[in-house]
Amino acid sequence: MIRRPPRSTLSSSSAASDVYKRQTYSIGGVTQPAVPQWDDAIVGDDVTNPEPSFIGKSINKMLFFRNRLVVLSRNNVITSKTNDFFNFFSTSAMTETSSDPIDLQASSTFPTTIFDGIEVNAGLLLFSSNQQFMFTTDSDALTPTTAKINYLSSYNYNPKTVPFSMGVTSGFINSTGKNSRIFEMADIKREGEPTVLEQSKLVSKKLPIDLTIPTTSRENSLLLLGAKNYNEVWGFRYYSDGEKRVQSAWFRWSLSGDLVHHVILDDVYYLVVKLSLIHI
Q1: Cα torsion for 174, 175, 180, 183, to the nearest 10°?
Q2: What are 39-68's pLDDT values in tens digits?
Q3: HEC string of 4-62?
């Protein structure tokens, strides 16, 4: 939870500035700030230059998109100024500029809390527990005037997981039933429903309900799924020829210990397993 300090003035000796300066640490004799140097509002008031809507509320995720820091809080999408990641206040209280922060709300007939997002060609694909949205713009520039959030589809999503890229498509995990389900979303546009396929139908009765750790290798067309403290890793290998999925298959690996974490980096698969009280 983040709380905003009192609005500062242009003076560098303000109380808020002094507090930030004291919060530092040293590495190799070089002093570093312990917390981000968040900019405070220097113009306007709470009406003409209001504080971002995540102040005093829980933050679900922080992302980067279009040279802006994006904060997901409840059903709001809040961005920093362009190329100024720690500034969430407008430059002027009189006029709006294209680099000003953006603060939009995803509207829906259901209670909507946005948990995560992933960048796609059409914009920033957002996930709530039962719906998907698109944070995008019809213009070349993402500005407070042109930015919008469009509804895309209604599929359940496990907020304990993260969405993942499968190359030109995106995937996510659904854990509402007795077993986990893996969905792949293709043909994602700014408006209109995308094409969503369940890729786990062949193993729908086999996948553990606790799958929460996905990792992918787009170059090798490989998706690996694990559950913490389980001794199995499930894999999905696929081959596409252009826009057509030619072949795909599921497989399962048994581990010598319980999985703690795994990731694919530069075509190498790394995993941490727990053997009794030892992590390897």
Answers
A1: 0
A2: 888 888 888 899 999 999 999 999 999 999
A3: CCCCCCCCCCCHHHHHHHHCEEEECCEEEECCCCCCCCCCCCCCCCCCCCCECCCCCEE
Is residue 172 within 8 Å of residue 157, measured between CB atoms? yes
What sign does the dihedral 183-184-187-188 (CA atoms) show?
positive
Using alpha carbons only, what angle is made at residue 188 by residues 184 and 194, rounded to the nearest 5 degrees?
Answer: 70
3-state helix, strand, coil split of the chain in percent (to 5) is 5, 45, 50
Q: Of the candidates 152, 219, 213, 150, which has an alpha carbon nearest to the alpha carbon of residue 180? A: 213
Enumerate the β-bridge partners of residue 103: 78
Q: What are phi and psi of 216, to 5 degrees?
A: -130, 155
| Alpha-carbon dihedral angle through residues 236, 198, 113, 102, given to the nearest 10 degrees | 80
Q: Hey, what's the torsion of the CAs at 185, 120, 169, 273, to 10 degrees?
A: -100
pTM of the model: 0.84
pLDDT digits (tens, 9 = 90+) for 233-269: 999 999 988 778 889 999 999 999 999 999 999 999 9
CA distances, 57 to each of 22, 88, 105, 162 (Å): 25, 15, 14, 21
- Non-local CB neighbours of 30 within 8 Å, separated by 6+ positions: none
On the question of pLDDT at 3 being above 70, the answer is no
Decide: 183 and 199 in contact? Cβ < 8 Å: yes
User: What 3-state DSSP class applies to 111?
Assistant: coil
The answer to whether the Cα torsion of 168, 128, 155, 234 is positive or negative is positive
- Amino acid type, 222: L
| β-bridge mates for residue 215, sequence order | 224
CA–CA dist 19, 188 (Å, integer): 45
